[in-house]
Design a protein that fits this description.
D-Maltodextrin-Binding Protein, domain 2; 9 strands; 2 domains; alpha/beta; 340 residues; two-stranded parallel ribbon
Length: 340
């Protein structure tokens, strides 16, 4: 009888363990971009590895942070991907906790700029992108960001609106080039305002630039590296500029909400996402540019993403505090000097 009872108890414990594994759920909040590829390369493989279920919520950063703030006392997500500036904003609102990097060993494989992007231990960089200038090599030469405002060039330029992701970084580098790189970007905005009637357009969507370039309405435009691939398909002599002031760009980071219910599982997923194999797979599908410096890709792939130690070191990223503290000033100054 004892053997039967013991056997029944063992079976019950195994059944409970199996049920617990099935009930183990990780909820993440991400951008809607390339979700089919992320499911194939990241989500499904992780579920197989952890024996858990991954619940994926999508949306923009504003929605993501608002939801985190509304559920501060009892978080409903376990991990989120946001911009550097949004990560600092979340930290200032006490919505996130320090990342225990002892549980995320792949952090050691990241480029230095991605290990602790905001210098507060609250985030790690999962992907980044360069911002520079795509231009017609047969029409002009771009050695400096200031070249965009030169006579004979400026009237064939598209410049990103300040409200876009590319706007402030491009203004930041323009300010550096003209020796007016104050945090409020006023010098760069003023210089741009003086040429506003000559500039072809202040674009909001980078997708419109390919057609403008093809129609030869523009010869140059600041863009993110993730927008570069369609330009390479045009039968035009185009190049990616390497201005003497450097390139700018942006970085997306991973954060863990404070008082989350699944911190260990969230950190396990973070480590998986930062692994060499996963970051390489995402790079080869041109989904993300890797922050893991061990990733090696073909020349063809490298030419279409932000890649390599030299590129990582050259990126002049706007400090997150500068973005948060000056965002309203940028918009006000832009509206006054450039308009809509």
């Amino acid at each position: 009888m004892k053997k039967i009872i013991l056997a029944s108890g063992t079976a019950l414990m195994l059944s409970m363990c199996a049920a617990q594994a099935q009930d183990k759920t990780l909820t993440i909040s991400v951008y809607a971009f390339a979700q089919d590829e992320f499911k194939e390369l990241v989500y499904t493989p992780f579920e197989a590895k952890c024996g858990c279920k991954l619940v994926v919520e999508t949306g923009n950063s504003v929605e993501r942070l608002a939801k985190m703030e509304a559920n501060k006392a009892s978080p409903v997500i376990d991990l989120a991907i946001v911009s550097m500036a949004d990560a600092l904003s979340a930290a200032r609102k006490d919505l996130v906790q320090k990342i225990d990097t002892s549980k995320v060993p792949n952090v050691d494989k990241l480029y230095d700029i991605a290990k602790d992007p905001n210098g507060d231990g609250m985030s790690v960089g999962v992907n980044f992108y360069a911002t520079s200038i795509v231009y017609r090599t047969d029409k002009m030469k771009i050695d400096s960001w200031a070249d965009l405002l030169k006579d004979g060039v400026v009237d064939h330029v598209a410049f990103p609106n300040v409200t876009t992701n590319q706007g402030p970084p491009a203004l930041y580098m323009l300010g550096k080039a003209i020796g007016k790189d104050t945090p409020d970007l006023s010098g760069a905005i003023e210089a741009l305002g003086e040429k506003k009637d000559e500039i072809v357009t202040f674009y909001v969507k980078s997708s419109q630039l390919v057609q403008l370039m093809q129609q030869e309405e523009i010869w140059a435009a600041p863009i993110g590296r993730f927008s570069w691939a369609p330009f390479t398909k045009l039968d035009l002599p185009l190049a990616w500029a390497t201005p003497k002031e450097g390139q700018t760009g942006g970085m997306n980071v991973l954060i863990v909400p404070k008082n989350g219910k699944n911190e260990d599982l969230a950190l396990q997923f973070m480590d998986f996402w930062l692994s060499t194999d996963v970051q390489k797979a995402l790079a080869e599908k041109l989904v993300d540019s890797p922050t893991n410096k061990e990733v090696k890709v073909s020349e063809e792939v490298a030419n279409n993403i932000t890649y390599g130690d030299e590129t990582a070191k050259s990126l002049q990223l706007i400090p997150s505090a500068v973005t948060l503290d000056n965002r309203d000033k940028w918009l006000s100054e832009w509206n006054a000097k450039v308009g809509q």
